[in-house]
Every structure is written in structure tokens, then in C-alpha cells.
What we know:
By secondary structure, the chain is α+β, with helices and mostly antiparallel strands. The protein has 3 domains: about 10-205, Aldehyde Ferredoxin Oxidoreductase,  A, domain 1 (4-Layer Sandwich), CATH 3.60.9.10; about 235-405, Aldehyde Ferredoxin Oxidoreductase Protein, subunit A, domain 2; about 435-620, Aldehyde Ferredoxin Oxidoreductase Protein, subunit A, domain 3. The radius of gyration is 23 Å and the shape is globular. About 60% of the residues are buried. The model has no long low-confidence stretch (mean pLDDT about 95).
Amino acid sequence: MVKGYISKCAKIDLTRDKIEVFNLPEEYLKNYIGGYGFAAKTLWDELKPGIDPLSPDNILLFNIGPFPGTYLPTSSKYGVFAKSPLTGLFGMSISSGSVGQQMRQAGLQQLQFYGKASKPIYLFVDDGDIQVHDAKDMWGKLDSWQTEDKIREEYRDERIGVAAIGKASEKLSRFGCITNDRNRQAGRTGMGAVMGSKNLKALAFRGTHEIEVAKPKEWKALALDLIKRCQGPATLKYRDLGTPINTLNFQKLGCLPVDNFREGTSDRALEISGEIMAEKWVIKKAACSNCPIGCDHLCLAKEGPYKGSISSVDFESLFALGCCCGVYDMNAIIKAIEMCDRHTIDTISGGLCVSFAMECFEKGYITKEDCGGIDLKFGNADGMVSFVDQICSRSTKAGDLLAEGTRIAAQKIGKDSMKFAMQSKGLELPGYHLTALKTAAVGFAVAIRGACHLRNAAYSPDQKGTFDRFKEDRADERAKEIIKTEDNYAVIDSYIICKFTRGIYKSDDELAQVYELVTGIPFTGKQLNKTGERIVNLSKCFNVREGWKRADDTLPERFFSEPQTQGPAKGIVIDRKGFEDLKTAYYKARGWNEKTGIPTKEKLKELGLDFVLGDINQDIYTA
């Protein structure tokens, strides 16, 4: 038996009210590790192509890796996966907190949800006992925080890990998220909406299952050393100011998105900086289960109409609901983040939907009447908060429209609005103005789940000066840098551990050693990277099967035609030919077809993915 893993999977047919528990095969564990890898394989095998992501035909997965409950730092994480209602492609989101560890101790490695419950329910896994409960007293009445409190109060146990949705996900906002431990979210690609479409209000876990590792003595020694390293320089910025330290760093680089990405700098950036936040707004630093870092910076609104609001403020939420909307009022930003977390929408997509609506409002494409009578101009902090609520509740014409995401909203609004809908493949961009980061521009565009800084670290060589961040040269070298971190991130998200610890490992071999000591499966860094490559290729093939084309790996028109007017990136745009040349170099380095961007037969066979070739039209692989 493979150690570390629980290996049990629960297949839950919500339509037929049927639960089946079975053991995952050993080869499945070795070849796909956990988390992201399990999802890529399961969705490929089980999901019918072309289904509506918000229909009962979608499959919702909750996965963990082999490490929750062990000494490995930051290992209490879980992943949620399905076909994304926002992108129509591979959907994935990962969260920290207590849920991963509690799911592991409750005795499950994977949960698979099929169909749709006839009424609102929540699931409670209590030490292996899978219970389905009526959620009629929660649905439409309780937000995610209140749902978590109610379940814990009902069972009189604060240890219970709860992942819940609020009204936005119940109302099927396409970027609905899932909240656990109040301030932790499975945020991106609309996994909360998939929960809502299945009438699934919450999942709760409690358990006492022991975690057995293959080599306890060696494992404890390495794990304790890794915990010490988590207190060293590799994680200092996360412990000190947290990710909001990026605000002023990005300001210096000209890559801080301002006013819906019209600019990359702001003369008011200091007001929402990590430095000012720590001085005036942070009331507590907190850590997730099994985490020695403590990056969670809780902020309290201390005055004005939002006094008493509290939320965990990270850079991505701060930029999206702050400078991207022209808002620098921390009280309002704290309130807006709290609303997103309670009612469960992704703060990045939510903030960019507000900034998109603001630009539409200024152009006359959205009227005051459409958005409940508010003056939705850039810089209107109260308007930003109000419109977040309108999106969550779908209570106005504009709020209902933007709950669909910027891509669908732009398609319906028409005119030139698609040019400034800041999304790629339907997913709104994270907080990097890409005219100032040319490697990141390609890395974000080719990312499997849409515009994303968490599928690869393509921004890093730009920021460090490895490449000239204003040029599209050295295509082959840039492509290799993107791929190296993309494969590594696939492993990290399959383990599942926090990317903030990626700098504590001395080598790929040491990262592989962690897996070997826990599971007993011999593993090298080279094998680990090949596993990451296998996972990326399989999820890419999922996208191809769902209709992905090379033209989908692109960025908003704004980056190609509208230069910034100030700062270090003034006058610079992304050169379209250079961008396409970099994409071609990336596809080539991946062993994919250079023209189509589709994995070749040879590459798929090399990775043991021959089964893909038999399940879809093989002709596309010879294009």
C-alpha cells in the first residue's frame, strides 16, 4: 500500500442520491500525484465534451494531495475542479485553511459530484461517514461566514473544516467562489457557481484518521528543517508586509494596473501600499493549518460608513478593488473584499468587472439607471462597494450583466468594449500590467485556465532583469523559463502546497524527496518534472477537446494598441508579431505543433498519454 495517501474516493450522484466509495488505483497516484493531477485525469476520463458548465452534466471535484496532516509546511490545502462556467475550459481553484487537513483526517482523497440535488443540501464527512443534510435554512439566507458558523455550532465543534458558498454562487455568478475559514477562498474560474448549480451549499469535514508515512525518522528530520527554512529569507516578504508589498514594487516597474489597465502607475499608490496598510489597517497576522509563515493580514475598517468591516487583504484583491477602479479608500476596499468573501465572488474577477463597468459608464455604454442610480465613475469608492453588491445579488441590469464576467458582458454590450474587457480566455487578468512585462505577457496568455499568474512564474525573469522586460527578444530562452515554472507549479498544485514555500527547497530532487519519504515511491527531480509536464499536457488536451484554438492564447487589445502615458513603461505596447513569435517558441519548446499549439502524437506518447489520441479527433494532432 502507498503511504501518505488515504486513497479513498467518494463518487456522489446528487440526482440519484447515491454514494459509492472506492480506492484509487496505485498507478493513478504515482502518475498524477494528487490535486491538479487527479483532476486532469478524472475530468478527461469522466466528463463528456461540450457540456454546459452550469448544467447537471458537469462534474465537480474536491481533491487533496498526499501531505495534509503531515509535518510538511503549508500542506493543508485543497483543490476544486470542473469545467469552468467562466471560460468553458479546464477550471481549477485552490484554497488554504483547515479544510485540506480535515478532509484528509475524515478519510477521503477525492470527492466527485455528479448531477444536481433536488433541493439545497450540504455534505458532512464525519470520520468516513458521508452524510447528506438539508440546507433549506441556509440557502438564500446565510452567507459563507454564517454557514460556517452554523455548521460548527450545530455539531459543537470548532475543528470542523467548512467550505461554503454565498448568494452570488447560489445565483450562478460565473466567477462565484468558495469560502472556507472566512478569509480563504477557492477563488478563480467559477467553482462556487458549479456548487450553486448542483444545489450544494457547503461541504464539512471532521476526522481522526491517522497519517502514516513510509520513512518516519528521515521524514521528520527533513520536515522540521523545512519548517525552519519557512522562517528564513525565502518567505520574509510574506511574513512582513504580505503580498501588498507588491504595490510600490509594481509602481516602480510601471506594471501596477490603474483605471482598468489604462495606466501602470498612480501618484496615489502609497495610499494602498503594504507599508501604509501595516501601519494603519492591519490588526492581526494569521496562518493557515500547518503553516509557519502567516501571510494572512487581517485589516479593519476603522471609520466612516464601513466601520467594523474586516477582511484579509492581499495584493490581488487590493489592486482589483482599489487602483484598478481608481479607488484608494482603504475602508471601502476592506468592505468590498469582505462582501466578496461572504457572498462568494472572486475578488480579481469581481474588481475587474467593476472597473470594466466604470469605463463603460464613462463611455455611456452603461447608464445610471442600469446600475441603480449610482455615479459609477473611476474613483467613486462608495459606487464601487455598491456595484460589488449589485453583482453579488444580480439586483440591477448592469449588476446582472457583469455577474457573467467581462467577456460575456462585452459580447452583449458590443461597440469597442471587448478591447478593454481585461480578460484572456474569459478569465480576468491578475494585477500585472503586461506592456511592462513581455515574458509574463506570453506566460499569462498561454496559461491553461486563462489569464493567470499562478500557472507559471513568467513575471519573475522580467522583474529580476533576466530579460529586457520591454522587448520580445530571446524567444527560445523565455519559452524555456515559462515551461520550467509551469511544470513545477503543476507539481506544487498536485502536492498541494503553497507556492510561497517554493523558495525553501534546495533542488528539484529535494522536492521529490519529500514525496518519496512520505509515500515510499522512489522519485527523482527529473521524474517529478516529467510528471508536471504530463499534467500540463493532459489539461491542455482537455481544453483542445473543448474547442480551444491558438487564437485563444491572447490578451486584451488594450495591451497591443494603447500605450501608457506616464511612468517607466510610457509609450510601450506589446508588439503583436513579437508576441506571436514568443508563443510559437513556447509551443515548439513544449513539443507541440508550432502552428496550432496542440500537443503532438509524439509528445503525448512520450508522456504516457496515448489514451488521449483514441478519445478525440486525431486529425488535429497532425495539423
